[in-house]
Amino acid sequence: MFVLTIALWFVFLGWIIMIWSAVDAYKTAKAMNLRYHMLLAGASPISTRG
């Protein structure tokens, strides 16, 4: 039972990591797209890091 619990923990952890990486990729692509369009428009890009 303990081994099954550990196996299920790794399975669910894998799903959480996969969902988080998809969200992170979306946010990164959105920021890169915004910087690209700002560059095309001739404006200076806004830094998200302060």
* Shape annotation: rod-shaped
Q: How much of the sequence is in beta strands? A: under 5%
Low-confidence stretches: none
Profile the largest sheet: none
Order of helices and strands: H
Structural class: mainly alpha
Count helical runs. 1
Total count of strands: 0
End-to-end separation: 49 Å
Helix content class: over 70%
Rg (C-alpha, Å): 19 Å
Report the average pLDDT across residues: 85
Transmembrane segments: 6-26
Keywords: Membrane, Transmembrane, Transmembrane helix
Verbal overview:
Keywords: Membrane, Transmembrane, Transmembrane helix. The chain crosses the membrane at residues 6-26. With 50 residues, this protein is mainly alpha-helical. The protein contains one helix and no strands. It has one helix spanning 2-41. The longest helix has 40 residues, at 2-41. It is rod-shaped. The chain starts with a helix and ends in a 9-residue tail after the last helix. The relative contact order is 0.08.
